[in-house]
């Protein structure tokens, strides 16, 4: 039997469920698994964890949440594939506080001397953890905690060292011929000398693929430390020949993945589309014909880009979870991953306001505050309870760009005052909701500063800047003040600024500069009329008249 009967796309394609996690839960239940139901993900801790890594974790989380909601006991595990080898030096690293450093700020030479060795055998460049692998696994664990998700992290190295993989390794090595036949259908260069095991060289510590002998009665493997080809690079072997136990090495990935399914009794595992055409088909065949375990329910998810480019820990094109949570609430980031898994998306720092607005509409739909088509409402009704920590109908969401406007002042009392005058907070809003609503302000302010966008200015609210205008400009400002006092919105104010300048024959740029100096003590700023329309009218009128 081949992998063709387990299409990893099928679980979503053949379902009419409004929420994709319900479709996956249905497929898992159809197998009548023993409890706890085990949901797994995994990654090599090769460098800085980023939001791409939580893609798999959050996809798993939603399935786990649905199953728990149906009354099942669920174990969500995530393997740190930390016995994998360090293949190349990353361009950047991060300490446990999340501070990014270049290789020049650590001992890059020491890292270079550890190429080819397992991550857990490499010293932590920062000296804070037991190993390189432990360090970057801890950073990922922190990211998951910040998202409010409980995940059990499992170290592959610990599974090997504890003997959890022993039976599987013995079985694979005892059935080498079958293992070679199965893998050769999926991978070239599998010859009669291929042995599905990598040994850790006792001399240099590298993982070597040249296995020269087996003694399964003694659980021992003999090896020769030869060169390792990693993509376009070659890591030189030291030439040492020796013997190690089966706990002092690892299975190749295409055998290790099915071995994890067996050892951890995995019922469901999502994975990126890159695995769908390669590792998954071979994994199914290895699982059934070599390891003797039924593969878990699969689900493919689409990778997403960051500002239009692929995420990459090695190149440094990443954004960490803690960085994102400085810009938006955890539930907004969780929302990004609740959407259709197979739809390609871009995570744009520049356009985070659009993502937040989308979440706000999603939430408003759940509470019946916004009309939608029936299919969309069904999705929202099913998904929303798993996105938020708690369903709170009295919650208040200040529009993100308005929160960025409030972030132009440091005065927290003033922020609340303006929000109340604009009607976002009312006398009936409970104190906890006020606090939550205004909590978005600092995040929006951080976004403005990070991107240097139109909201990255400081409103001079406390005292009026020292200004001196000619008579025409003074008259024009007074006239604009009268217009604002009539109650027009930001768009109308923006148009009126142009018309006022024309009527008084004032250079357009100079008139806008006058407004910027009044409100920001600067020669430039955000779109002035739109901005003024978001402030409390009394203050804007008084400032235009140079009264406060």
UniProtKB/TrEMBL annotation:
Q: Which InterPro entries match?
A: aa-tRNA-synth_I_codon-bd_sub2 (IPR020751), aa-tRNA-synth_I_CS (IPR001412), aa_tRNA-synth_I_cd-bd_sf (IPR008925), Lys-tRNA-ligase (IPR002904), Lys-tRNA-ligase_SC_fold (IPR042078), Rossmann-like_a/b/a_fold (IPR014729)
GO BP, sorted A to Z: lysyl-tRNA aminoacylation
Q: Which EC number(s) does the record attach to this protein?
A: 6.1.1.6
Q: Which reaction does it catalyse?
A: tRNA(Lys) + L-lysine + ATP = L-lysyl-tRNA(Lys) + AMP + diphosphate
- The sequence motif named 'KMSKS' region is recorded at 310-314
A GO cellular component annotation here is: cytoplasm
Class of enzymatic activity (EC top level): ligase
Q: Does the keyword ATP-binding apply?
A: yes
Task: Give the Gene3D superfamilies listed for this entry.
Answer: 1.10.10.350, 1.10.10.770, HUPs, Lysine tRNA ligase, stem contact fold domain
Q: What is its main location?
A: cytoplasm
Task: Please give the family membership noted in the entry.
Answer: Belongs to the class-I aminoacyl-tRNA synthetase family.
What is the protein's name according to its record? Lysine--tRNA ligase
The species this protein belongs to is: Halovenus aranensis
Primary gene name:
lysS
């Amino acid at each position: 039997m081949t992998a063709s009967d387990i299409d990893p796309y099928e679980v979503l394609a053949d379902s009419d469920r409004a929420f994709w996690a319900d479709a996956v839960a249905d497929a898992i239940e159809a197998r009548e698994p023993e409890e706890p139901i085990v949901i797994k993900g995994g990654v090599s801790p090769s460098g800085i964890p980023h939001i791409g890594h939580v893609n798999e974790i959050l996809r798993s989380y939603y399935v786990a949440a649905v199953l728990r909601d149906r009354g099942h006991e669920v174990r969500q595990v995530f393997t740190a594939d930390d016995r994998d080898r360090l293949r190349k030096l990353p361009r950047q690293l991060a300490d446990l506080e999340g501070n990014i450093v270049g290789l020049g700020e650590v001992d890059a030479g020491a890292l270079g001397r550890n190429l080819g060795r397992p991550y857990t055998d490499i010293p932590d460049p920062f000296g804070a953890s037991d190993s390189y692998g432990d360090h970057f696994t801890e950073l990922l664990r922190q990211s998951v905690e910040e998202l409010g998700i409980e995940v059990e992290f499992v170290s592959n190295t610990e599974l090997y060292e504890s003997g959890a993989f022993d039976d599987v390794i013995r079985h694979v090595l005892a059935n080498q011929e079958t293992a070679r036949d199965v893998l050769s259908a999926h991978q070239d260069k599998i010859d009669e000398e291929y042995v599905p095991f990598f040994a850790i060289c006792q001399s240099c510590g590298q993982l070597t693929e040249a296995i020269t002998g087996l003694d399964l009665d003694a659980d021992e493997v003999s090896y020769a430390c030869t060169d390792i080809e990693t993509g376009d690079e070659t890591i030189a072997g030291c030439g040492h020949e020796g013997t190690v136990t089966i706990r002092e090495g690892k299975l190749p990935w295409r055998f290790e993945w099915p071995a994890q399914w067996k050892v951890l009794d995995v019922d469901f595992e999502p994975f990126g589309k890159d695995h769908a055409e390669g590792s998954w088909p071979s994994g199914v065949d290895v699982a059934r014909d070599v390891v003797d375990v039924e593969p878990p329910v699969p689900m493919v998810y689409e990778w997403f880009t960051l500002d239009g480019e692929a995420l990459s820990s090695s190149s440094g094109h990443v954004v960490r979870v803690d960085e994102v949570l400085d810009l938006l609430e955890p539930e907004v980031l969780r929302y990004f991953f609740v959407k259709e898994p197979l739809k390609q998306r871009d995570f744009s720092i520049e356009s985070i306001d659009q993502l937040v607005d989308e979440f706000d509409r999603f939430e408003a739909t759940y509470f019946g505050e916004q009309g939608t088509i029936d299919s969309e409402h069904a999705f929202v009704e099913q998904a929303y309870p798993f996105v938020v920590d708690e369903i709170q109908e009295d919650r208040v969401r200040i529009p993100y760009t308005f929160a960025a406007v409030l972030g132009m002042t440091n005065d927290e009392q003033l922020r609340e005052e303006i929000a109340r005058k604009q009607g976002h907070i009312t006398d009936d809003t409970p104190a906890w909701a006020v606090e939550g609503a205004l909590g978005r302000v600092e995040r929006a302010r951080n976004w403005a500063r990070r991107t240097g966008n139109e909201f990255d200015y400081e409103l001079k609210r406390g005292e009026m800047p020292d200004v001196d205008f000619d008579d025409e400009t003074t008259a024009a400002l007074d006239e604009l003040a009268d217009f604002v006092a009539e109650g027009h919105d930001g768009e109308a104010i923006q148009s009126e600024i142009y018309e006022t300048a024309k009527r008084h024959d004032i250079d357009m740029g100079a008139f806008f500069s006058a407004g910027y100096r009044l409100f920001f003590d600067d020669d430039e700023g955000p779109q002035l009329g739109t901005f003024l329309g978001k402030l409390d009218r009394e203050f804007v009128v008084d400032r235009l008249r140079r009264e406060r």
